[in-house]
Amino acid sequence: MTNRNTVTYNSMISAYAKNGRVVEARRLFDQMPYRNLVSWNTMIAGYSHNGCVAEAAELFDRMPKRDAFSWTLMITCYTRNGELEEARRLFDRMPEKDVVSWNLMVEGFVRVGDLVSAFECFRRIPNPNVISWVTLLNGYCKSGCIVEGRRIFDQMPEKNVVSWNAMLAGYIRCLQIDEAYQLFMEMPERNSISWTTMIDGYVQCGIMDEALELFMRMPKKDVVSWNTMIAGYAQDGQMDKALRFFHEMVKKNRVSWNSVISGFIQNGFYVEALQHFKMMRKEGKDPDWSTFACALSGCANLAALQVGTQLHNLLLKSGHIIDIFAGNALITMYARCGRILTARQVFDEMVSVDLVSWNSLIAGHALNGYAKAAISIFQEMKKNGVAPDEVTFIGLLSACSHAGMVDDGLELFYSMSRDYPITPVAEHYACVVDLLGRAGRLGEALKLVKGMPIKANAGIWGSLLGACRMHKNPEVANVAAEKLFEFEPHTTSNYVLLSNIHAEAGSWGEVERVRVLMKERGVWKQPARSWIEIKNEVRSFSSDDSTEPRAAEVFMVLRVLNAQMRNIGHMSDSSLLDCG
DNA sequence: TATGCGTAGT
């Protein structure tokens, strides 16, 4: 029984489900006077789309009649939600397997990285179509088996533009940019995806000039190619160019806004990120979870609690559920703003949490000096069956370091590789050096650094040098400084620090040695500059005709200054998020 | 304009 009414209902169910409103979709489904097969299928698709596996399965079992759509929808639901075994069982039960269902199973194996089963499954397909081939090709390329991928590509009986694009993306995923370009030139036809993939390839290799050249050559530039350039420049640290592209765009979409906002965050322009968040809303573009996460990260870095709280309210009001991403961003924001109890409250109210949530909570407590709490959260986390990772230990070690809990910290450090399969990286060593350094155990710290299996970086040596100042140890200071100078030969503050250590010890000969060193290296007449001095310098750029500063340099300096100068309290008073 | 599989952007 199908009439116009049924079709309307079906469209509405689909529309609701696609927007995450699965409860409303179900209410409509239950209200329908007549449900046809498509209604059932649409509802299952809706559940599948929103990760509601159990609900989909329940409907699938109850439906009066099933067609090929029903089966493949349910298989998709399982494979896309990480239940490959269930998918496999259902597939085995499927009465007449069509090529779509076969392709889904190949894709399911590809998703979990089981290429052997994927290939085996592919081989059994009676009449593989071009989609079957592309799915397999993708599997190899995504696992970095580019040679295998190429072999599949060469064996394909028919190739369309999608096949070529998949091979192109494969080369780019493996960062084989020359091979990619060669393939790009060989392509019998190119669509906008081919162009954008190639442009993005140059972006990923950090070759923005080539990306730009290709973008200019692109016949019909669409919003995605523009967005790729914006994200590319942002990633490359060239926010001025990213912003220019953004302003020149005629039709900006949500991704354009997100790209520029996230670019600001990546490059430390937090105020600008929040301003653009506001502008985005003013222009009637709805922020999504990614926008919110960026804005919250901006607040976290500025310690802008008032704005962050407004964002939290906005998030609740806009009907977004506080999912894992948003929840984690909120935890970090509140913790960085010193509201550790609120951070904990957000954590407790989250429907589900992941490792990042735990890590954010631990790091938040560490940051606020609650080392004991950080460790007890770690215990709680383990009790919940969540295994720690590198980030967890950075939080724990920094907690111990701030609280002077040397023995606990060392024990945690050693337990990393002993009890968990986690190899300490430079950041962990930096924490432990800091830990030992603050406690005055400089000899041990130096010994640790010298025995490191990886090369110590500037952060580690810098941390050691700082500790030498605190505990007046010129001998270790000389060793640390020498290493630090290898990384940062022109950073004045390092020399000044070393000089001060010797001065405090009364070793004027050593002080003089450092001064000579500075002079030799041309750093000695570079006083630490206040922002006012930098600002004047920037201003003088325009009147100084001997050197024409690059626009980018001026832009960067000005932005940093703006961010520093602006009063955050004032910013929230001017109701940053209030868009009338 | 109602439902299933493959290629691009935060």
UniProtKB/TrEMBL annotation:
PPR repeats lie at residues 5-39, 67-101, 129-163, 191-221, 222-256, 323-353, 354-388, 389-419. NCBIfam families: PPR (TIGR00756). It holds the Pfam family E_motif. GO terms for biological process: RNA modification; system development. It comes from Musa troglodytarum (fe'i banana). This is PPR repeat. Keywords: Repeat. GO terms for molecular function: RNA binding. PROSITE patterns: PPR. It comes from the Eukaryota.
